Amino acid sequence: VQLVESGGGSVQSGGSLRLSCAASGDTRSTNCVAWFRQAPGEEREGVAAIESDGSTSYADSVKGRITISQDKRKNTLYLQMNSLKPEDTAMYFCAAGWVYGGSCLWGDDIRFWGQGTQVTVSS
Length: 123
Prior knowledge:
Radius of gyration: 13 Å
Oligomer: single chain
Strand content: over 45%
Number of helices: 0
Order of helices and strands: EEEEEEEEEEE
Distance between the termini: 37 Å
Number of strands: 11
């Protein structure tokens, strides 16, 4: 499975961005998808996920501001980010995995990663 992100950029605090992730290849080896981010000097963290049962999970820091969705016909994953804050500045990665009862958001069961797209929020 290949994952290619797009849509990153620079915005001012309070602005919005929509990230996209185009998937190709045999996605039958995955049952969940997610977005992660990593800021310089920080550990990677899960931002949002669509779990194996179709439910969504979000990091507490983004709840109410960020929405994950997917268009299965287009094999594309989205991350709509509103009310962006400087602390949202990071490299954002699309990911896909297979979970056996946990959450895709934990990152333990990720099998495929995209190359990342940079999001920079200025104050």
